[in-house]
Amino acid sequence: MTTSAVHTPRGPVTRKDVARYAGVSTAVVSYVVNGGPKKVAPATEAKVQEAIRILGYRPNAAARALKMGSNQTLGLVIPDSSNPFWALLGHAVEVAAAERGYALLLTNSDNNLDSERRHIRNLADRQVDGVVLASVMFEPDLLELFGTEIRSVLLNHASVAPGFNSVGVDLEAGARLAVEHLIGHGHTTIGLAMGITADNEADGREEGWQRALEAAGLPVGPLARGGFDRPGGYAAGQRLLAADNRPTAIFASSDMQAIGLLRAIREAGLSVPDDIAVASFDGSIEAEYSWPALTTVEQPVWEMAEAAVSALVGENRNEPPQHRVFPTQLRIRQSCGCP
Amino acid sequence: MTTSAVHTPRGPVTRKDVARYAGVSTAVVSYVVNGGPKKVAPATEAKVQEAIRILGYRPNAAARALKMGSNQTLGLVIPDSSNPFWALLGHAVEVAAAERGYALLLTNSDNNLDSERRHIRNLADRQVDGVVLASVMFEPDLLELFGTEIRSVLLNHASVAPGFNSVGVDLEAGARLAVEHLIGHGHTTIGLAMGITADNEADGREEGWQRALEAAGLPVGPLARGGFDRPGGYAAGQRLLAADNRPTAIFASSDMQAIGLLRAIREAGLSVPDDIAVASFDGSIEAEYSWPALTTVEQPVWEMAEAAVSALVGENRNEPPQHRVFPTQLRIRQSCGCP
DNA sequence: GCTTTTTGTTGACTCGAGTAGATCCCAGTG
DNA sequence: CACTGGGATCTACTCGAGTCAACAAAAAGC
């Protein structure tokens, strides 16, 4: 028995072990593993493959990452991965990344700018090949954080930031679609439950709501601000219901807000859509299963995720920053008054 | 674009650059960065810190990972990160990992065993320090996949698997709590909407439902199986409503199922809880905002995530596999008939 | 004043894999 | 028979950071 030659290594199996077992040099092992830059004789290749199989060799990703300067990993920063909309976006990004052989590091900023900064730092330290930043906040100094080394793309940001790639939807057009639909149902007092964005710039959804009303010659209804989440919508709903000019229809800036809104309306003893019609923005699955099912402006989340990932890892990596704006689609259900 | 100090190297800044700039050896830089194994004179330390600051040095994580054999990363495998329950669990795991300085690689298995295997392989190749496997499926050959090198823990698994760490809840006791509560409301025909688990073993929730009924001397009501998700609950609901012995109360094995169930009940023109009372399992946020709000068996998700992560990275890393079972708590809302 | 001890610093090796450049071997040619 | 071409393979250096043995300088001890 050739015990010395067929010595089973103790720790994890390295390229060296495979080389020894197959009786070749470490270079050949690399060539086989990567279809490497040089050809290997079929017979040798077979020997190496066999050795790999028997020893259970798996190339060390850290070593490869060190040598190659890339670890085939992207980072994703979202405010709250347990919020269904972000969860969906995260899922889509993960799938888009996986399709290209990239893994996804997930981090939650919890809507906290400091935490967001920390996470971006951390991702940069980990040499990710790019960062998808999906955050409602935005501060220009983020640009410095990224430096020039690390690719990034803003996903689902309200505003277009110079110097950054971005992928988003036409918020204004989407909101207008929804509000016009509510107007079509004969409503004349249409309120807005608007989420809070970091920069106090008017969000496209707010503009769309306003313009649709103006275009129809209607007065601009009451507006309440709150978080984009369920509690935010609940609070905004309570304020809208207490307004002097109580609206007969409300447009909410996110599905989650609309769900909180529905609760506020129910607690006030009113019914949707008979007393108050509701439409919202996002097109998440919750909208379909709420009661009543929400009429909502659907974002093409999967396409957006695709676009974001390809901006980071695609051919066009070194082109100037791109801004892609996707169209939305009105998904009509019952909360607006349609049967 | 900012032009910085004179000594700015072209590529990414390495330890060597810092050493040169500060006029010390690379070893000292390491010592400073890590509070390293050797002491450094305060004056020298200051010089190095200054150099680090000025050059904007960030240690290369891949190199560190290579040397240390750990990249401070955990992997998470869940069926569908856009399902709110998994999303919540994922969030909790991410936070627990971050607290310990670990990043989280997120992967979706899409309830597909092959995909799950591929992802585990991939995570193993990436030398993660541990894998949290939260999947409804389970196949014993997973054990081999992990080999002995890589730590793992099963999170939220129905059954305890020998050789694996696991963290779960007492499904049977939780289900019993819920069903007993429905019995307390005077119901005598209580159905079950049960999710589908890979191994055909009876799930604890099914047993709990059955035992609670038997203990109360009640007949075992109708049972329908479907996915753990909303469509699954919807389909199961339709079948339960069409049953000969139509139940007046239904226990659902997940919140998502219950939400699908609510829809089926509404479409049948019935009301919850007046015509049919509902209770479910999980305790996710959707349960709170559904209509009516769901009475549900709450899982201590955050504690479970903590436990799972600490099983992977804690002191007790090298102890034999542990099985931790957490208690659940009945969260009473309106869907059961309580005011 | 001349050892010891302590403190601070450094050069050099290591982790595991990618790959350029050198080397080997053999078939084919003059 | 020597000579070249070319395919297959190997040697050796590289990536960036951790850390130990070795060493220099300063402090303490007798």
UniProtKB/TrEMBL annotation, chains A, B:
Q: What are the GO MF terms of this UniProt record?
A: DNA binding
Q: Which residues form a coiled coil?
A: none
UniProt keyword annotations, A-Z: DNA-binding, Transcription, Transcription regulation
HTH lacI-type domain location is 13-68
InterPro entries in UniProt: HTH_LacI (IPR000843), LacI/GalR-like_sensor (IPR046335), Lambda_DNA-bd_dom_sf (IPR010982), Peripla_BP_I (IPR028082)
Q: What is this protein called?
A: LacI family DNA-binding transcriptional regulator
